[in-house]
Every structure is written in structure tokens, then in C-alpha cells.
Amino acid sequence: MKILADYHNHTIFSCGGNDNRRHATGKVEDNVSAALEKGLDKIGISEHGFNHAFYGLSKENAKKERDEIDRLNKKYPQIEILMGMECNILDDSGRIDMPDDMKKHFDYVLAGYHFGSKPTSLKSLFHHIDNFITKGFFSKSYNTRSVVNAMKNNDLLYITHPGDKGRVDIEEIAKVAEQTGTGLEINGHHNRLSADMIRQIKHRDIKFFIGSDAHDPKNIANFDRAIAIAKEAQLDLNRIVNIKI
Ligand SMILES: [Zn+2]
Ligand SMILES: [Zn+2]
Q1: Spatial CB neighbours of 60, under 8 Å, sequence gap ≥ 6
Q2: What is the 42 CA–ligand 2 centroid distance (Å)?
Q3: What is the pLDDT of residue 154?
Q4: Pairing between β-strand 208-211 and β-strand 80-88 as defined by DSSP bridges
Q5: Ligand 2 centre from 11 Cα, in Å?
Q6: Is the Cβ–Cβ distance between 156 and 148 less than 8 Å?
Q7: 154 CA → ligand 1 middle, Å
Q8: What is the number of alpha carbons within 13 Å of residue 52 lying toward its C-beta?
Q9: CA distance 4 to 189
Q10: Can you give the three-state secondary structure of 172-196, one letter per residue?
Q11: Cα 190 to middle of ligand 1, angstroms
Q12: Residue 232 DSSP symbol
């Protein structure tokens, strides 16, 4: 098996850009070096979005990171380095935290739901709390609508860790993923999609991706758990877009 690309990993730009070791530990060049060591053709860096309460890329750092990635593409012509973003799905309108004036800095966009995205209303605050405390006992249809509308209203490469932070109707999400051509991630860190979820949806023509979600360079392209999940679900590994069997 060859890993072609890892589109989901974080650097210290996800936590202010200082070497303060709080949320993610590597610099962009550290992640790129790790990707080179693992023989990848391509790496996409995807920091957390702008509207997270505790971490995430700042608009100022987005420009710095773009410059750094452009510099590293010249320094390392043997690998393609892309700049993505793991946007937050903000609420059930499907809005994500990618302002129009920032889109030009990014090569692709991922989106996922996170507890810590800033609430857009009392209702969204309620669902954050419910997802945090009960894994979404009262929020299944809200969470599903959030992901479905995010796919319908945005041009996304894929949805990160679907259903990891609150229950969802994965069959409904898969239906819209198929319609919109949006990928779904088997996350190497969070175990979502799970094997059960994959079994439920693999009859659909969906683009499956694996993302390492590395917060440390040593985990770049660590797809071991995700591959194990895919095998457990008896998914044909040829259907995973960013690996080659
Ligand atoms: Zn995430
Ligand atoms: Zn992530």
C-alpha cells in the first residue's frame, strides 16, 4: 500500500503560531519533512478554522502560512504541499468559518463539527452542550442537518471525523455526500467513520478518504487505525481516494 496524500494534519498555526506546544506541536516544515520521510507525493496542511473559541488559525497567520507553504514548495520540489483548512461546521444552516475574502489563500477546504466552535445562537449553544455531555442525545437530527447543509452549501473536499462528537444519521449524510461529491473521512485518530458506519453506507458511490489528523509530525500519514477500521468493515481499499493498493 502506498499513501498518496495526507490532507488532514495540524501545525502550531492551529494554536497561535507560537512554539507553545499546546494543541499541535510541529511547524509546517516539520510536517513536510515527516511526509517526505514517509514517501508521500502530497501533503495538505489543514489547521482548525477561524471561529474556534480556544484554538484555530488567525487571519493574520493564514497569510503567513500561505507564504511559508509557497516557500517550502520551492525548497522541496519532490513533494506537493497544499494549504487547506479544517473549517468548523457552525450550525444547522451548514455555515462554515471560511469568509469569502479568505478563500483565495486556500487550495482546498475540509469541514467538521467541533464542540468548541463559537455558538451562533442559543440553539447552537444548547446543541454544543448536549453533544459534549450526552454525545448528542437531543441533537441527532440537528447534527445531521448541520453536516448535510455544510455539504450542500460549500465546496468541500471532505467531511472530517463524521459523527465523532455527537450522534448523526450516517445514512442521510452518505446520501448527500454521494449527491454532492463530497468525501467522507476515516479519521486515523478519532475512529470515525467507524466500521459500523462504513458497513451501513458502503453501498453508495462515496469518496472515502483517510486523514491522519496528526497534531504531531510523528503521526503524519499514520493511517494504521483507519486501515484497520476499513478492513473490519470489509471496505474495498481501492475505494479510498488517497491510498494506492
Ligand atoms: Zn477535527
Ligand atoms: Zn483535525
Answers
A1: none
A2: 17
A3: 97
A4: unpaired
A5: 10
A6: no
A7: 17
A8: 23
A9: 18
A10: HHHHHHHHHCCEEEEECCCCCCCHH
A11: 9
A12: H
Instruction: Measure 202 CA to ligand 2 centroid, in angstroms.
Output: 23
Which pLDDT belongs to residue 54? 85
Helix, strand, coil percentages in the chain from 3-state DSSP, rounded to 5: 40, 20, 40
For residue 165 the three cell numbers come to 462528537
241: three-class secondary structure by DSSP: coil
Q: What confidence score (pLDDT) does residue 55 get?
A: 86
Distance 235 CA to ligand 1 centre (A): 23
pLDDT along the chain (245 residues), means of 10: 96 78 86 97 97 90 97 98 98 97 97 95 95 95 98 98 95 98 95 96 98 96 97 98 96
Ion ligand 1 neighbours, Cβ < 5 Å: 112, 160
pTM: 0.96
Report the SS3 class of residue 48: strand
Q: For residues 9 and 28, what is the distance between their CA atoms, to the nearest angstrom?
A: 10
Say which CATH class 2-244 falls into: alpha beta
Q: Burial letters for 44-64: b for 16+ Cβ neighbours within 10 Å, e otherwise? A: bbbbbbbbbeebbbeeebbee
Ligand closest in space to the Cα of 24: 2
d(CA 4, CA 13): 24
**Residue 69 Cα to ligand 2 middle (Å):** 18
Say how far apart CA 165 and CA 143 lie, in whole Å: 9
Residue spans per domain, the chain: 2-244
Cell of 242: 488517497
Ligand 2 centre distance from Cα of residue 227 (Å): 18
Cell of 115: 464542540
What spacing in Å lies between the alpha carbon of 200 and ligand 2's midpoint? 24
